[in-house]
Amino acid sequence: MKLQGRRDIEVLTGFKGRDDLVTSFYLDTDKSRLSKKEIQVSLKNLLAAARLNVEAMDAGRDKKESLFRDLDLVAAHVLQSLAAFNAPGLAVFSCSRRGFWLPLELPHGPRNRTVFDSTFYVRPLAAIADRFSRICVLLLSRREARWYEVVMDGIKPLDSLTSDVPAKIKEGGFEGTEGKRIERHLDARLHEHFKKIAGTTFDLFKKHNYDWLLLGCEDNHHPDVESHLHTYLKDRVKGRMKSRVTDPPAKVLKEALEVEARVKKAEEGDTVQRLTAELERGGRACSGLRDTLHRLNQFEVQSLVVTHNFSKQGRLCPTHRFLYVDELQCPVCQKKTEILLDVIDEAIETAFKHRCAVKQIDPPSRLDRYGHIGAFLKYKA
Ligand SMILES: [Zn+2]
After folding, report:
1. Least confident piece of the model among 52-61, 81-90, 173-182, 218-227
2. How far is ligand 1, taken at its centre, from the CA of residue 301, in Å?
3. Nearest to 345 by CA among 109, 112, 10, 152
4. pTM of the predicted structure, to 2 decimals
């Protein structure tokens, strides 16, 4: 099953394992970056490490048995489906003892990991869902309009309308007063058509809460159409589409995803550009893991910028929840720190808790040269 968005996340967070432990498994299966062999090796290593973890766990036999069974099911599922699997990511959520099983195809490769806990680990799903905007596509001609919803990597028709606007009659316009009258009449009909379209679009946005509007129309009507849109919508027009009202949904989806990827890439480039400029002029920014964690611990971070899937071991003060690269003792309370398998993941979680924005950047980018992580700060560093 494909990850649909927030709904799947709610199903998972709503699952109560009661006393049981549950398994959350994530595998990067992006065949555009990884060979099948590499994916198989990661799978093998991941499962071997997970089994060791279960063995070392201080838990009852029943609980451990259930986790071992989860891992067997995951292994069988991945080995069986990998050959035909085309999604860039896979997640499996399992609780054998309670008969819960949910494999999900992800539209973006996650970090490889297995997590055992009393609840499902859904943060990577939330991060992936955040990468995709909720998009409304509006395609129109002089007489027709069609609306689609594009969410994650699926498309769904929303609405359509046909107006009774006469076709343009002849090149070169009309002559005489009669001609002028017809032209004005045409303009009025077209104006009505655009007005209706703008109204429906606004209603759809209110109802479904879309982030972006992508617009495709003929005859260079763009300025006309946009001038009819509510200001709220004008700000959400993120791009123009070449697709036409008569195009099949599959074609519309393909183009919408291309536009989305292009816009996101440009936004990411802009974020990295602003960050490095701020760093170079010694402004309100920091970079590198050590400094960024320090700033985060001090509540100085305004927004965190991190290379997607960047992962590093680190340490955590159990009292303060402060994050460190390698401090064995918390410098604040002198307590022994705990090992974190992935301090980046905790940093992202901490940033969310502090209500900071988190911007994930697809590699390669200039952020790689700054230690894959940085932040805009509230105050000057
Ligand atoms: Zn401490």
Report:
1. 173-182
2. 19
3. 112
4. 0.71
Summarised one tens digit per residue, pLDDT across range 296-337 is: 999 999 999 999 888 899 999 989 899 999 999 999 999 999
Separation of 288 CA from ligand 1 center, angstroms? 22
**What is the whole-number distance in angstroms between the Cα of residue 323 and the centre of ligand 1?**
9
Supply 355's token pair: 């209500």
Cα-to-centroid distance, 316 and ligand 1 (Å): 8
β-partners of residue 154 are 151
CB 360 within 8 A of CB 307: yes
Q: If 0-12 CB within 10 Å is exposed, 13-18 middle and 19+ buried, where does residue 334 land?
A: exposed
> What's the alpha-carbon Rg for the chain, to the nearest Å?
26
Instruction: Please state, in angstroms and as integers, the Cα–Cα distance from residue 4 to each residue in 10, 27, 51, 121, following that order.
Output: 11, 18, 30, 17
Q: What is the pLDDT of residues 78-95, one digit of tens each?
A: 989 888 888 999 999 999
For residue 257, how far is the Cα from the chain centroid?
12
Q: Which pairs from 170-178 meet CB under 8 Å and 24+ separation?
A: none
